[in-house]
Amino acid sequence: MTFQLFLQHLVNGISLGSLYALIAIGYTMVYGILRLINFAHGDIIMLATYIVFFGILIFSLPWWLAFIISIILTTIIGVTVERAAYRPLRNAPRISILISAIGVSFLIENLSLVIFGGRAKSFYQPHIFTKIINFGGVSLMSLTFIIPVTAGILLYCLTYLVNHTKTGMAMRATARDFETARLMGIDINAIISLTFAIGSALAAVGGIMWGLRYPQIHPFIGIMPGLKCFIAAVVGGIGNIPGAMLGGFILGLGEIMLVALLPTLTGYRDAFAFILLIIILLVRPTGILGEKIAEKV
Fold first, then answer.
1. Among 71, 77, 105, 236, who pairs with 246 as Cys (CB 3.0-4.6 Å)?
2. How many alpha carbons fall within 13 Å on the CB side of residue 198?
3. How far, in Å, CA of 117 to CA of 158, rounded?
4. d(Cα 178, Cα 136) in Å, to the nearest integer?
5. What are the CA-CA distances from residue 218 to residues 5, 83, 116, 181, 269 (Å)?
6. CB atoms near residue 214 (< 10 Å)
7. Please, is 58 exposed, middle or buried when counting C-beta atoms within 10 Å of its C-beta (0-12, 13-18, 19+)?
8. Do residues 68 and 278 make contact, with C-beta atoms less than 8 angstroms apart?
9. What pLDDT does residue 296 have?
10. For 216-252, what is each residue's pLDDT tens digit?
């Protein structure tokens, strides 16, 4: 492998890894506060791509306006899912809310199948994202650079919000001890809604980027990226935002390098994520940056 080819794979791996990290944040934020695996997160990604698709096709919106509307509507959908399916079960056994999450996921997928149809559709790719950039003998699409830059800006803003604002302090307090945070006067419902809003907005951006990178959408498009990003969150330490970022980059770089260095194993690319998950659970069940949480008795 030449140095130029290695560099090309490395940049592709960073780009895919930052996309995984962006989506994995939604899983880890919800789990950090509610101890809930939000199985509907992958379907939120799918809805974001369809809102863009119909915004451009039916309403002839400029692509940038369709992107913004998609992020806003997806955020509203995410908050609505929390209020309708999770909030009424907040004091129920944990298994009930987990089943509710699985039910919401199946409901969104099957409703989308009925409304949008099962036939795959082409996702619009503006020229700005497909322009080929050459440097040092390496040719890459501009999207390859736009994804990590966008992810980096959003993740920096999120990290600042969580670590340097009163809202972030309330989020961390809620994640640490739900009941004590309530007794301290924190509006738990508002914090949880905000968490779902941020997670859904990041999922929308991730879904749009995913559609630009793999420009074919269908009602089940969110399943595989959703599973992989959940794995990324677990690998890094679910409930830990830096851990989700780290897990995303490990998964993205690992996938691309597996295909680059061992091309005969290209068909096992998706299996790599699950093998990595099994290894991490065997070696370090809490994830790379995860902390062991003692159960209350």
1. 236
2. 25
3. 36
4. 53
5. 32, 26, 8, 41, 21
6. 12
7. exposed
8. no
9. 45
10. 899 999 888 888 888 888 888 887 888 888 888 898 8
Rounded CA-CA distance 232/215 in Å is 23
pLDDT at residue 114 in the model? 93
Give pTM, 2 decimals: 0.88
CA dist 12 and 27 (Å) reads: 23
Residue located via tokens 């101890």: 35
**Dihedral over Cα of 6, 7, 10, 15: its sign:** negative
Buried b (16+ CB within 10 A) or exposed e, 114-133: eebeeeebebbeeeebeeee
For residue 129, the Cα-to-chain-centroid distance in whole angstroms is 20
pLDDT for 151-197, tens place per residue?
A: 889 888 988 998 899 998 988 888 888 788 888 888 888 999 999 99
